[in-house]
Amino acid sequence: AKRLGHNHVQVYQDSMSFQFKSSAAMRSSLQEAIEKQQLRLHYQPIVRCNDLQVVGYEALLRWEREPGKFVSPSEFIPLAEMTGQIIPLSEWVFRQAFMDAVEFQKEGPRKISVNLSTLHFNRSEFADHLEQTLVETGCKPEWIELELTESILMENTDYAIAVLKRLREQKFSIALDDFGTGFSSLSYLKRLPMDKVKIDRSFIQGIRTHKSDRVLVSSVIKIAQSLDFAVVAEGVETPQQAEFVTELGCNYMQGYYFGRPVAKEDL
Ligand code: C2E
Ligand code: CA
Ligand code: CA
Ligand code: CA
């Protein structure tokens, strides 16, 4: 939780008072979340640096435990990964995001980014499941970007690369999320079948105060682009940060400065 923005805490202040007594309590509670239809997707705009046009939205999972009170995914996704409940949860996310992607196209061409769960990704039927969900929802893979973290790649790199190749053959695009926070080795970056790199917000937020963050952001943009990956700056909160990454040639931006994640109806 390096330099986790204070805004982040504010957003979820209401849910912070609420604690699970045990992981068993949380487990049955998560089961309820699915059954009682308390899951929601919120969407955050992603803009192009050149002209500030909205090119897509990232789908971010929310658990509306009581009306208007949202539990943050960072509070329940790690546990859901452990109990296996992430599978029905993640299947719900994909179905909903694909249905919403169909609606979003009415605005113009939009890419909807969906976060991958490690457990779901590692199941042998994962790619088939996505294919089937496309058919059921009428969504096109060209409208979807899959966001994966380095931890997915670390576990079994060769297997992960094979799955990513298959997903790209299916015409999904792939983005590497939270870049810079993991075990980022530049040597494997060039082996990865993917389209985009998302620079973690901790580096963007340090741009004004830390020279090391400026150097890192600038180098990541250069290296990623030399490998033909587009670059997204995450967590852009100020016009200065937007200007800085744009001047460095970054391709896309996302962050509170352009819009917080909200329900689709509230965009
Ligand atoms: P992430 O994929 O890195 O998502 C970006 C997080 O940064 C989101 O937190 C978003 O609300 C927050 N954010 C966006 N712009 C700003 C900004 O300008 N400043 C600050 N301080 N924060 C910003 P959120 O929604 O709480 O999600 C946390 C994490 O939970 C996500 O990180 C992702 O790893 C995971 N997650 C969210 N939805 C899903 C999902 O549907 N499936 C899976 N497997 N994981 C999900
Ligand atoms: Ca993400
Ligand atoms: Ca991220
Ligand atoms: Ca993250």
Give a description of the structure.
The protein is of the alpha/beta class. It is built from 13 helices and 10 strands. An 8-stranded mixed β-barrel has the order 1-2-4-5-6-7-8-9, surrounded by 4 helices. It is globular and about 50 Å long. 35% of the residues are buried. Ligand C2E binds next to helix 1, strand 2, helix 4, helix 5 and strand 6. It comes from Pseudidiomarina aestuarii. Residues 23-267 form the EAL domain. This is Bifunctional diguanylate cyclase/phosphodiesterase.
Brief rundown of the structure:
The chain has 267 residues and is an alpha/beta fold.
Placed side by side, the strands forming the largest sheet appear as: 1-2-4-5-6-7-8-9
- Annotation, overall tally of beta strands: 10
Structural class by helix and strand composition: alpha/beta
Q: What's the overall geometry?
A: globular
Strand content: 15-25%
Low-confidence stretches: 1-17
Binned, the helix content reads 40-55%
List keywords for this structure.
10 strands, alpha/beta, disordered N terminus, globular, binds calcium ion, eight-stranded mixed barrel, 46% helix, binds ligand C2E, 13 helices, 267 residues, single chain
Element layout with pairings:
Elements lengths: L5 H6 L1 H4 L6 H13 L3 E10 L5 E13 L2 E3 L1 H11 L2 H19 L6 E5 L2 H4 L4 H12 L6 E5 L1 H6 L1 H13 L3 E7 L6 H4 L6 E4 L1 H5 L5 H16 L3 E4 L5 H9 L4 E2 L8 E2 L4
Parallel strand pairs: 2-4, 4-5, 5-6, 6-7, 7-8, 8-9
Antiparallel strand pairs: 1-2, 1-9, 1-10, 2-3
Helix pairs in contact: 3-4, 5-7
Protein name: Bifunctional diguanylate cyclase/phosphodiesterase
